[in-house]
From TrEMBL:
It holds the Pfam family YceI. This is YceI family protein. Residues 11-180 form the Lipid/polyisoprenoid-binding YceI-like domain. InterPro entries: Lipid/polyisoprenoid-bd_YceI (IPR007372), TTHA0802/YceI-like_sf (IPR036761). Belongs to the UPF0312 family. PANTHER family: PROTEIN YCEI. It comes from Kribbella sancticallisti. The lineage of its organism: Bacteria, Bacillati, Actinomycetota, Actinomycetes, Propionibacteriales. Gene3D superfamilies: Lipid/polyisoprenoid-binding, YceI-like.
């Protein structure tokens, strides 16, 4: 969000029915597996004139992971991966927002997965604003970041015949947000 969008300034709540928090990881070194989280909530304060004054917070329920395969999802929820019994939530709390170009910015923050908190920088694009048929002001944001899952203690893997591993260490988080301005 470049400066000069003073009408966007305000507090927002993520519309989870129209947003997606997803991920992509390589499987067996040959294919990509895509998934997402079905249960999450978040809020943001946007400052259209001074983006550095903006902030965001998101909480994801680890149990809501969905890759369209029950056996894989159960394994991802287990101690081998997300350990949801001991770490039921994944959280992100922003620490800085920096414009990086027209309608692009970097959101820095603390990401906590499996009880391990690390700083991450997520590149976002402001995709627009609209007033929906119900009179709500909506703002759209899309972003992504590549993480090494081992940095967060998610280190399970298995060797595959011919070399390589079953699950890539690098995981791409994909974020598509529709947020509603609080009245």
């Amino acid at each position: 969000m470049s400066t000069g969008y003073s009408e966007l300034t305000g507090d927002y709540t993520i519309d989870t029915a129209h947003s997606r928090l997803g991920f992509v990881a390589r499987h067996a070194m040959v294919a990509k597996v895509r998934g997402g989280f079905d249960e999450f909530e978040g809020s943001a304060h946007l400052d259209g004139d001074k983006p550095a004054n903006s902030s965001a917070r998101v909480t994801i329920q680890a149990k809501s992971i969905d890759t369209r395969n029950k056996q894989r999802d159960d394994h991802l929820r287990s101690n081998d991966f997300l350990d949801m019994d001991n770490h039921p939530e994944i959280t992100f709390v922003s620490t800085a927002v920096e414009p990086t170009g027209d309608d692009h910015f970097k959101v820095s923050g603390d990401l906590t997965i499996r009880g391990v908190t690390k700083p991450v920088d997520i590149d976002f694009e402001y995709t627009g604003t609209a007033v929906d048929p119900f009179g709500n002001t909506r703002v759209g944001l899309e972003g992504s970041v590549v993480l090494n899952r081992k940095d967060f203690g998610v280190s399970w893997n298995a060797a595959i015949e011919g070399g390589g591993v079953l699950v890539s260490e690098k995981v791409t988080l994909e974020i598509e947000i529709s947020a509603i301005k609080n009245t």
